[in-house]
Amino acid sequence: MDRRPSLELETIRSQLQSAEAELDELSHQLSSFEALVDTRLGSLLDQLSELNADVSSLDAKLRHIREERLFGADLMRYLEGAPQIARQPHLTDLPPFGLASREAIHGTADKPPTTPEVNIPDIKALYRKLARRYHPDLARNDVDRASSNEQMTEINRAYHASDLPALMKLAGMSIPYGVNLRQPPVQPGKTDEEPQSELEQAERKLKTIRQQITRLSSLPIVKLSLEVKLARHQGRDLLSEMAADLRYKVAHKIAERDYLQAQIKASEIPKDG
C-alpha cells in the first residue's frame, strides 16, 4: 500500500498546525499593540482626522465663494449642473474615526469566518479598522507613509464601492467557500466548486494562513511595534514622542481651520447685496 499521500497529509497537517499557532500569536500581539496605540494616540488621531475633514470642506467652500465672485452666480449654477469629473476618494471624505467605537475598530475581524451565517464583518467597522491600521501618521518613514497612502486609496475605493470582499482581502481575511458577499448567501453545502480531497483542503488552508501571516507582518503598525520595543530598550518612549508630534499637527490644523473660517466670513457675499 502506497503511504505517500498519507505521509504528505501528515506533513501538511503539521505545517498547518504551526502556521495557525504563528498566526494566532501574531494576531494577539497585533491586537494588544493596537489597543495600546488606541489608548495613547487614538483620541489625537481621531481629532486630526476630524480637523482634516473640516479643513477640506472649508477650503472647498472658500474656493466656491471666490469662483462665484469671479464668474458670477448664474455661471456657477450652470457649471454645478454639469457632469463632474470623478476623483479618487480620500481619507477625509468619510466620517471621522471618532464616530466608531473602540471595539468596532479593534475587534477580531481579522480571523477568517467559518460559516456563511457568522463572522461576516460589518463593512463600516472593517473600513475604520483598516483606516486606523494604515493611518499615514503612524508611519515612521517616507516609504511606509507612501505605502500607507497607497493602501488607503484602495481601502477608500473599496469602501465607496461597498465592496466588502475587497476590504476583507485587504485585511488578509478569507471568504467562506460558496459565499458571494455581493449577493444573498448560498445555502451551506451548495457550492459550484468541485469537491476537494482532505489533502487539497489542508494545502489550500495552509496557503491562505501563510498569506495572512505575510500581510500582517508587513503592516506599518507591526513595524511600529518593533520600533517601540527598540526605543524602550534605549530608554525612550516612542509613543509619547508621537503623541507630541500629533498634538503639534492638531494645533497646526486648528490654526488652518480658524484661518479658513475667518476667510470665509470675510469673503461671503451678503444675501442682501
Descriptive report:
This protein has 273 residues and is mostly helical. Helix content is 66%, strand content 0%. The protein is built from 9 helices and no strands. The protein is elongated. About 13% of the residues have low confidence.
Let me know the number of strands. Answer: 0
Largest sheet: none
* pLDDT averaged over residues: 78
Number of domains: 1
Give me the number of helical elements.
Answer: 9
Q: Catalogue the unreliable spans.
A: 94-118, 183-192
What is the rounded distance between the termini?
A: 96 Å
Coarse structural class: mainly alpha
Order of helices and strands: HHHHHHHHH
The proportion of residues forming helix, as a percent range, comes to: 55-70%
Task: Give the overall shape.
Answer: elongated
- Gyration radius from CA atoms, angstroms: 24 Å
Tell me the fraction of residues in β-strands, as a range.
under 5%
Name a few traits of the molecule.
273 residues, mainly alpha
Concise account of the structure shown:
With 273 residues, the protein is mainly α. Helices cover 66% and strands 0% of the residues. The protein is elongated and about 85 Å long.
Write the layout of secondary structure elements.
Elements: H1 4-71, H2 73-80, H3 102-105, H4 123-133, H5 142-160, H6 164-170, H7 198-217, H8 220-233, H9 238-267
